Every structure is written in structure tokens, then in C-alpha cells.
Amino acid sequence: MAASDILQKLRIAIRPHHEAIHRLNYSRLSLCLPPKVNNLSLYALGLTYYAELYYGLEEAWVSCIGDPAEWLFEQPDTHIHDSPMSGKERHYALLRPMYVPELLRTRRLEADLGLLRSMEIGLETSPHEHNMRSEIRSDIIRRITMKPHLVVAYAWVMYSAILYGGREISALLLTAGPGFWGLSATELRSGKMPCPLSFWHVDDAATVKVRLRTCIEEADHLLTAQEQQDILDEAIEIFNMFEMTTTSLDQQAALMRN
């Protein structure tokens, strides 16, 4: 196995792409808030699209590592690296430590979107739109199934978006005021982001940041040189997915305004 700082390489590879997509999406978020709009329909539309990225990652991840309920609280095998590992054992050793429950977004997204849909804000789904979102999820599942080590790229890029960019985005969203989100001022002072904003909240975020960084740094000795390159290439491809998703959202938003 090649020894290398995969996390440092990831940071360098994605830096320009990260800055570009952050500017792109941050500018779009302001269009979803007052005074540009008076309801949550555009925000909800965007969340439905980006949710598919996280659904795809987390579904494929569990498929690679097995049901977490069966192993999450077991003591790790400290002798696992003392002998040659099968492909499945290596994937377990690589991907299970990164499976941090506090990071998972699927349940939060389902809860947020469930509440948004209950608000009757006109979030109808056309067959074409449904197919586009399904393709996003299916493509991620296919890519990870073929190369499970790509989870490293998806986990770092997609959870970093919450852990490192989430505070700035949350601050922007909260400028709309609690009433816009159907919340009381008391709910927003609780220290957590309740539905329909729970997607942006990570319990004990500072600790989780350290744990994610450590797990990815420790992945180096389990990755071949080709797998490391696959991860770097895929990280850039994820930002291409983000850009295509936002472009699709622009088109859907234009249709909603007409």
C-alpha cells in the first residue's frame, strides 16, 4: 500500500472547485429568502435535489459495510492489519470507522422535507423532475458500488459542506426570521436547528470534525496509489455533480416563476 497524506491531497485538489460551488450555491440561497420570495417553495425544491446526493451516499455506504446495528458498538479488531485482508475486510476496515452517526443526513432530510411538504407550499413533483432526482441517487450508488473506496471522497466533500460551510449558510437562512420557517424565536434559540432546518445541524460538531479528519488521515495505509487517485478524481467529479444539480435547479425555479 502507498503511504501518503490523502486528506492534504484532497484539500488541494478540490480547493478551486469548492470556492466556485460555494459562491454559486450561496448566491442561489439568497434567492430563496425574503424579500425575493414570501414562501419556502424554492428552498424546498433545492433541498429535494441535494437530498438525493446524501441519500445515494448513505445507502451505498451501508451496502458496502453491512447494517451498522450489527457492528457499530463492537470493539474494533486491533489485529486486523497483522495478516492479509480480503477485499471485503479491507473495505470494512476503511469505511466503517468513517461511519459517524452524527454526520448522517438521511433522517434529517426526510424530517425536513416531510415538514416542508406538509406546509402546502406547492412542491409538486413532475415525472421528469422525479426521474432527474432518481438519476442523481442511482449514479452515486452505481459509482460507489463499483469502487467502494470512493466513499472517502464523498464523505469528505459532502460532510465538509455541512461541518465547515454550514455555519455561514445557517446564518444566512436565519436572516429570514423564525416566522418564515414556521418556527418560534424560542425554537431557534435552543442551540439546535429544528425542522425544517435540521439538515444544517450536527451534534457536537467540533468533535465530529476531528473524528472525520482523523479517520480519513488514517485511511492512507489501506489505499493503493490507484485508489488514492480514484478518490481525488471523484472528489472533483462530485463538484461537477453539484454544479449540474444547481443548473437543473435554476431551470426548475424558472418554470416555477412562470
From TrEMBL:
**GO BP term, example:** heme oxidation
Q: Which UniProt keywords apply?
A: Heme, Iron, Metal-binding
MF-aspect GO terms:
heme oxygenase (decyclizing) activity; metal ion binding
The record's section on Pfam families has: Heme_oxygenase
The question of whether Transferase is a record keyword is answered with no
Query: What is this protein's record name?
Result: Heme oxygenase-like protein
Q: Which source organism does the UniProt entry give?
A: Penicillium atrosanguineum
